[in-house]
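Action item from last week, closing it out:
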Amino acid sequence: MKIKVGFQGSNGTFSEIAALQYFRNRDIDAQGYPGFKAILNDVENGTLDYAVLPVENTTTGIIARCYDLFRQYDIHAVGEIDIPIREDLIVIPGTGLEEIREVYSHPEALSQCTEFFAANPQIKSVPWQDTARSVEYVRDCGDRSKAALGSWRAREYYGMESLISEVQDSDLNMTRFLVVTAKDESDPAADKISMMLVLKHRPGALYNILGILAKNGINILKLESRPIPGKIFEYMFYIDFSGNAETREMKAVLKELSLRCEEARMLGCYKAAEPEKFSESNS
């Protein structure tokens, strides 16, 4: 029986690449969704077994609109994968750079290619639904003045051509994806914990939380503040740190953290990803 896996966007997006790569040794039915809420609804109600969601990019930082939804659903992260983001300038076959006046793509992708647009001021960037839909739109228009930023998979899927390969600003451009589920799963090899914390309003609250981790020799991997919906200038924190939540020592640390916070929610405990060197030959 195939495992049902959801991802944001359509065929050819980097989210689809992440889903196929993470589950490459398993028989899956990968399904694209127009938005994160629809995906998380179907994970929570059991329609999907898993979802693969982008949460952070090395160029543009945290993908907040996705992260902030975690608080609303009874799901947890059980894995992660890092995918190199290689944005090709994709065109109708035979198109020259001098013909292009508009480039379509997801806003995240456009923001990761600012140097290309600075070097080509005659070309306008146009936000679109996702990278793959942008390629599909340019193909359907049949207009050589239009191009898209997208993946090699989108280029192949829609029968287009890469005029320029890898136009992203950084060669280290990479997106981190979390694999989430509503199932009760645990991995004995897990070595990374993600949490959401709402601190008490008192001096030194954050200092004390970080001190708990420091005194136990726990390495903090990420710390990000986000506004709390419905409250004025109040913030929660997303924090990632090394460890396995099932060990006796970590259980004591997690208990101490919960006592020091207004709210402490485990988003997941999973095996940290090794950076993927993804190419067409990996598909």
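Closing note: Residues 88-164 form a domain with the D-Maltodextrin-Binding Protein; domain 2 fold (CATH 3.40.190.10).
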